[in-house]
Amino acid sequence: MLRIAILDDYQNVALSLADWGSLGDDCEVVRFDENLSTEDQAAEQLEGFDVLCLMRERMPLPASLIVRLPRLKLVVVTGARVRTIDMETAVAQGITVCHTFAGQSAHATPEMAWGLILSLARSIPAEDARVRQGGWQQTVGTILGGKTLGLVGLGKLGARMVPIAKAFDMDVIAWSQNLTKERASECGARMVDKETLFREADVVSLHLILGDRSRNTVSATEIALMKPGAFLINTARGPLVDEHALVAALELGQIKAGLDVYDEEPLPKDHPLRRSPNTVLTPHLGYVTEGAYAAFYRDTVENIKAWRAGTPLRVLAAPSAEGNSQ
């Protein structure tokens, strides 16, 4: 019997979005609807599985956990990029790692960022809650027209923010370590230095890939440069921002923040951000769309079938006998 674990199926949709039965009667599919938050818990719960199906980076697989999963032979991760699996250890343990369709992030994540921006500008979550509690309006909003959007990162996702900002009649400035004036101009933005971006932007939105160079891109120094009441939007990765400095600034009312990502996910129940004022918080919804999930799980089933047939697809890492990515 091939035992397959579907991890972090928070919405309980995985089994309905793909034909898992097509894998055959010799497969047992088990779904987990909550994050296995500690390594000991994960090792205990997963040691009897041959295949792990991961939803993006919700469940890390460090070397210390991989070696505690003796039956594991295949990992399928949704999306095309993953930084939370120790590939070297996986290969050494005879494990193949495959990926799926890249997802709908090119549209979904920028749309999520604008949802956070509008929610802050017009206090939508707070006023919705107030109406439901029997109250009426208490906040005074702000418009986006005539304001400045500062994009930290102008790659595929950052570039999609520009035409939407233009539709709101916003000026757009951008900065990243590798940005050129030519790239900024092509996207309809104006390149500035980092200090200028944080000083001038009314809304700062992060669209960088997390790495050693980008970690803590927004530190206490950058936050101190921001206009009073400016918005910081993060739909990329939590560690791009110094979380302690952010919490302190929010408590003092220096800025406001719309956050979809955090240093630790799920966000701990006692985390100070859950109590921080001047925030709109969402639980990493950027890539979470019906179309993306349907493609993710369809490709996951296809990957398992191909691996069982000896012809694995979309390979990220594999024992040498299984060859290269297809």
From TrEMBL:
Keywords: NAD, Oxidoreductase. The keyword NAD applies. One of its GO terms (molecular function) is NAD binding. CDD domains: PGDH_like_1. The keyword NAD applies. Residues 20-313 form the D-isomer specific 2-hydroxyacid dehydrogenase catalytic domain. Residues 115-286 form the D-isomer specific 2-hydroxyacid dehydrogenase NAD-binding domain. Gene3D superfamilies: NAD(P)-binding Rossmann-like Domain. Pfam families: 2-Hacid_dh, 2-Hacid_dh_C. It comes from the Bacteria. PANTHER family: D-ISOMER SPECIFIC 2-HYDROXYACID DEHYDROGENASE FAMILY PROTEIN (AFU_ORTHOLOGUE AFUA_6G10090). This is 2-hydroxyacid dehydrogenase. It comes from Pseudorhizobium pelagicum.
